[in-house]
Amino acid sequence: MEINKDLVAASSTPIVLAILAEGDSYGYAILQRVKELSGGRLEWTDGMLYPVLHRLLRLGLVESRWEVAESGRRRKYYRITADGRTHLAEQWRQWQAVDATLRGIRDARADAVAALRTIPSLLTFTGSVTYA
């Protein structure tokens, strides 16, 4: 299942903040975590992740630092800030409201279909048609 680009873009901020709320992380690890959490349905690229991280840095929702990995390679680690946690909590509430709305619409539709199925005799044609 391919997820619409608009939905991917809209969900990128809370997803990155939620991953960083688990603990400090770096770009490649964040990309792998997104793939893991989504069951492979979301496969972000560097070109998508880093603009999100830069925007979150500019907004003060995350902070960064350089560290040297065991391999000797430098990695930029990101950490969620207190403002980032507050923003994540608000995003979480908003996504829950969207989810509840969609579920309500789906359930209402299912109820309407179920109601129509209780009156099959009205939908059954019992006559014959004669063409002239």
Description of the structure:
This protein is α+β, with helices and mostly antiparallel strands and 132 residues long. The protein contains five helices and three strands, in the order αβααββαα. It has helices at 5-22, 27-37, 46-58, 82-117, 120-123; strands spanning 25-26, 62-68, 74-80. It has a three-stranded antiparallel sheet. Strand 2 and strand 3 (74-80) form a beta hairpin. Helix 1 crosses helix 4 (82-117). The termini are far apart. The mean pLDDT is 90.
Features:
three-stranded antiparallel sheet, 3 strands, 5 helices, 132 residues, alpha+beta, single chain, elongated
Question: Layout of SSEs?
Answer:
Blueprint lengths: L4 H18 L2 E2 H11 L8 H13 L3 E7 L5 E7 L1 H36 L2 H4 L9
Antiparallel strand pairs: 1-3, 2-3
H and E order: HEHHEEHH
Instruction: Give me the count of strands.
Output: 3
| Mean pLDDT over the residues | 90
Strand content: 5-15%
Radius of gyration from CA coordinates: 24 Å
Tally the helices: 5
Please state how the strands of the largest beta sheet are arranged side by side. Answer: 1-3-2
Structural class: alpha+beta
Q: Major beta sheet, specifics?
A: 3 strands, antiparallel
Q: Which regions are unreliable across 5 or more consecutive residues at pLDDT < 50?
A: none
Shape annotation:
elongated
Distance between the termini: 51 Å
As a percent range, the share of helical residues equals 55-70%
Q: What is the structure about, briefly put?
A:
By secondary structure, the chain is of the alpha+beta class. The protein has helices spanning 5-22, 27-37, 46-58, 82-117, 120-123; strands spanning 25-26, 62-68, 74-80. The chain is built from five helices and three strands, in the order αβααββαα.
